[in-house]
Amino acid sequence: MRLEIISKAILIIILHILPVSTTTNTLVVNRTKKNQYVMQKPCILLKRDIQEAQQVNTTATGDSDFEWCCEIPTEIGSNFIFSMEPRWYPASEEKVKSGVSTFFAAGAIIDWNSWIVHIPPDSDVVVQTSLPLWETKYVDITGTRTVLVVRVEANDSVMTSSEETLSDEWFGAGNDLVNSKSQFMACSYNKLIINPAPDLPSAGIEGGAVTVSLGRNVNGANKYTAENWVTQALSVKVGSTSRYDHLAYCMPPGMGSWLAYGYLGGRVTVYNDAWCIKVSAQMHELGHNFDFDHSGTPGDEYGDQSGLMGYSYREDDTNMCFNAPKSWFLGWYSN
After folding, report:
1. Percentage with pLDDT > 90 across the chain
2. N or C: which end of the chain has fewer CB within 10 A?
């Protein structure tokens, strides 16, 4: 127990001085002002797709918004995701792959206070993709994926479902017969198994779920800032998060009317309170991690209701899969 307490104390210290450390992966930074550093090496590009949802009947509708972000690995085994200002968009998305391509802007400032990469107006931007784009076009999402569901508490707001409920709604640990695990098994013909993160009593992980406390207020906070607060708190509690294929953050209410969001080709999905127990939202956002954009119809980005990359649904249990082309893309159909 004494060793565990000392280890956590050391990790907390590392988190407080995180930007000063030289990372071993893709980014090295030099200090300018407090918690602000000049970018020296590329970050990983991630496309963040969010539904700013309103509720109409049984579906979630509203504007979709997306932006490109910088993912920065750290020595502690957890990655942090930074917005970019001004917003940056590639000249052609055909030449950029979320989760694969890297981004470098000369003179850019990485601000660990606001979680923003500030790009100078005259900066030379270099985007590189390590593999030919045709090699990254199709993915094989089969086998076993491990998911850690993170229930978030703040000083002024608490995610309304318990860990037990989250474990049931995601993995069927209780009486819920329609959950992410059961649906991915059914939709993939048992080619994809979504497993809960292994129990880790010392970190409070049980049934694939864990609660983290932020120790600060979130009402009115920026949801992307709060996401990085969760990553910090989770790293302190469980250590490196690289052992998990996917991280699902179940946020407390108070940060707006958005539904959920995910990162194409990334590992993180984020849910606004009750949407964390809606199986259609769970599968939709994991679909973004699988590199899916939305399935739409002319004039309606979410209009394809034949699959889960269209609308998400307010009901708890939704018996639906991805549409046929997306399921083939994942390797779930025989050639």
Report:
1. 64
2. C
